[in-house]
Amino acid sequence: MRILLKWILHAVALLCVAYLYSGVEVHSFGAALGAAFVIGLLNTIVRPILVVLTLPVTIVTVGLFLFVINAWMFWAAASVLGDGFQVHGFGAALLGSLIYSVLGMLIESALGGLFAQK
């Protein structure tokens, strides 16, 4: 139940990103669900590999290169999905991923309190 709720809330977060920032376009809630799924899949499989491979650059930049990796994941999801979810350039991917990450932290915080172990 928690995973389904997280997926739906992350899709809503993508719709919020598209509403707040014109560099990201989401054409429907179905497209947002698909994009949230692909972003989650990329963050689970590809992101850890990229973090390990770029560890020296991340250390030199004091962790700021992780923002670039997040933007790549956001942009990659848009290129995989095509017309339903679009990101207009790397700068838009960077800003869109930052907004999406902040909304994701809010979702995780809210769900942590909702599904707290008693």
Report on the structure:
The protein has 118 residues and is mainly α. The chain has one domain. It is 78% helix and 5% strand. The chain has helices spanning 2-20, 29-53, 55-60, 65-81, 90-114; strands at residues 24-26, 85-87. A two-stranded antiparallel sheet has the order 1-2. Helix 1 (2-20) packs across helix 2 (29-53). The chain is globular, with a radius of gyration of 14 Å. 24% of the residues are buried. The mean pLDDT is 91.
Average pLDDT works out at 91
Structural class: mainly alpha
Number of strands: 2
Percentage of helical residues?
over 70%
Which overall shape is indicated by the principal axes computed on the Cα atoms?
globular
Radius of gyration: 14 Å
Number of folding domains? Answer: 1
What about the largest sheet?
2 strands, antiparallel
Beta-strand content bin: 5-15%
What's the tally of helices? Answer: 5
Instruction: Name the helix and strand elements from N-terminus to C-terminus, one letter apiece.
Output: HEHHHEH
Strand order, main sheet: write it out: 1-2
In whole angstroms, how far apart are the ends? 17 Å
Unreliable stretches (pLDDT < 50, length at least 5) are none
Q: Topology of this structure?
A:
Elements: H1 2-20, E1 24-26, H2 29-53, H3 55-60, H4 65-81, E2 85-87, H5 90-114
Antiparallel strand pairs: 1-2
Helix pairs in contact: 1-2, 1-5, 2-4, 4-5
Pfam families: Phage_holin_4_2
Protein name: Phage holin family protein
Organism: Comamonas faecalis
